[in-house]
Amino acid sequence: MCKKLFIAATGQHCGKTTISLSLMHLARQRYGRVGYIKPLGPKCHEFGGVVVDKDAALMAQVFGLENEIALMSPLVIGPGSTKKFVDGELSREWAMEKVAKACRELESRYDLLLIEGAGHGGVGSVIGLNNADMAKLLDAPVVMVAGGGIGNVIDSVRLNLALYGQEGVDVRMLLVNKLLAEKRESSLSYLERYFENKQIQVCGAFDYSPVLADPTLQSVAKLLGRPLMGDQHKKLRIIHHFQLGAASSQKVIDNLQESTLLISTSSRDELLVTLSSLYNIPSFHKLIAGIVIPGHAPVSAITQRIIDDSGIPYIRIEQTTAEAFSALSGHVSKISAEDTEKISLITSQAEQVIDFDAIETLLESAAPPTADKMRLVRAA
Predict the structure, then answer these.
(1) In this model, does residue 379 exceed pLDDT 80?
(2) Which of 331 and 212 is assigned the larger pLDDT?
(3) In angstroms, rounded to a whole number, what is the distance separating the alpha carbons of residues 257 and 240?
(4) Tens of pLDDT along 220-230?
(5) Mean pLDDT of the chain
(6) Do 313 and 231 form a contact (C-beta atoms < 8 A)?
(7) 260: closest CA among 282, 290, 234?
(8) Which of 45, 135, 202, 365 places its Cα 20 to 30 Å from the Cα of 291?
(9) Are the CB atoms for 81 and 42 separated by under 8 Å?
(10) What confidence score (pLDDT) does residue 374 get?
(11) First to last CA, the chain
């Protein structure tokens, strides 16, 4: 019988996708056949001619599961879908059937099936199938992913546990992600003490890492909706700092930090020329990742030629400098299949930081499906 594991989260940006990638990698080292499903997909993405959830597409690309993408993302909530559920044009029963049918098919093919939830526990309530409902429907033990800290973790976990408890679903394990390295042991110790009498095992996951958290040049270009120009071999370079080019050229250069993306308006010819000239000097190359050039005014012909000749990566936009900086500073980087450096780092570190033996113990101790639950799944 196929084992199943439901990967839940306390909310957005706590690293659930990173954990899913990690568990898939680790599981494939122990099981002959490991599958994946994201039952409810709130993030639409066209992949291979099929509209699926972005996370399902990512897992399919990374682990070579493209042929099963339709089963991996059986229910996608696109624009207008929520209104159809509220209006009664689509029903909870119809959604349950789609999910349960896909899950049954994948269970028949795999020894272990990882089930990734969507956002916090309440996501999907509008269609009558939130994460707690999904975990109950698919009868899988739940691992919950939370961000780092102590108070924040406890508060967010308790908020989500209420919903899972209401549905009679047991959360067996808490994976604490984005821990501060210097506080890792202390934070985990306090969390273990707090959750001990709640029968939830606490395990540490990844420490906070700028390499995993920060965006690439390519992801910034996608965010701004403009092509990345210049050296295309640098499109996956990771940006660690954003800096406004508002001061004098000398001061901007003096304040450069490792892998900085400069935001400099199109009228700052002196600064644009200086950055382009310094880009290919090794000591500055590690500091200058590229330039975002906002503004309606055209870049002068001679400045544009210097930029192009230098090969410095740049993104030309028409928004204001303030709009560009606001968009970039508030952006949370998401992993894509092209982020090979990040994915390689995730899978290698996962072997060191995630206790998969504890996951195995959880899977072994999971209660067999009850008769009621089996009837529910079969009825769907």
Answers:
(1) no
(2) 212
(3) 8
(4) 999 899 999 99
(5) 91
(6) yes
(7) 290
(8) 45
(9) no
(10) 42
(11) 19
- Scanning the structure block, which residue is given the tokens 């990173």? 18
Q: What is the Cα–Cα distance from 135 to 121, expressed in whole angstroms?
A: 10
**SS3 sequence of the chain:** CCEEEEEEECCCCCCHHHHHHHHHHHHHCCCCCEEEECCEECCEEEECCEEEEHHHHHHHHHHCCHHHHHHHCCEECCCCHHHHHHHCCCCHHHHHHHHHHHHHHHHCCCCEEEEECCCCCCCCHHHCCCHHHHHHHHCCCEEEEECCCCHHHHHHHHHHHHHHHHCCCCEEEEEECCECHHHHHHHHHHHHHHHHHHCCEEEECCECCHHHHCCEHHHHHHHHCCCCECCHHHCCCECCEEEECCCCHHHHHHCCCCCEEEECCCCCHHHHHHHHHHCCCHHHHCCEEEEEECCCCCCCHHHHHHHHHHCCCEEECCCCHHHHHHHHHCCCCCCCCCCHHHHHHHHHHHHHHCCHHHHHHHHHHCCCCCHHHHHHHHHC
Q: Which residue has the tokens 């030629």?
A: 305
Instruction: Select from 339, 328, 212 the least CA-distant residue to 260.
Output: 328
CA 41 to the chain's CA centroid = 13
The amino acid sitting at 269 is D
For the ranges 54-58, 72-76, 373-377, the lowest mean pLDDT is seen at: 373-377
Question: What local confidence, expressed as pLDDT, does residue 153 receive?
Answer: 95
Distances (CA, A) of 303 to 248, 269, 271, 287: 17, 6, 10, 21
- Among residues 156, 208, 202, the alpha carbon closest in space to that of 182 is found at 208
Only one residue has tokens 């696109």, namely: 78
pTM: 0.81
pLDDT in tens, 121-161: 999 999 999 999 999 999 999 999 999 889 999 999 999 99
All residues at 6 or more sequence positions from 256 whose CB lies less than 8 Å from its CB, including other chains: 243, 284, 287, 288
* CB atoms near residue 353 (< 10 Å): 15
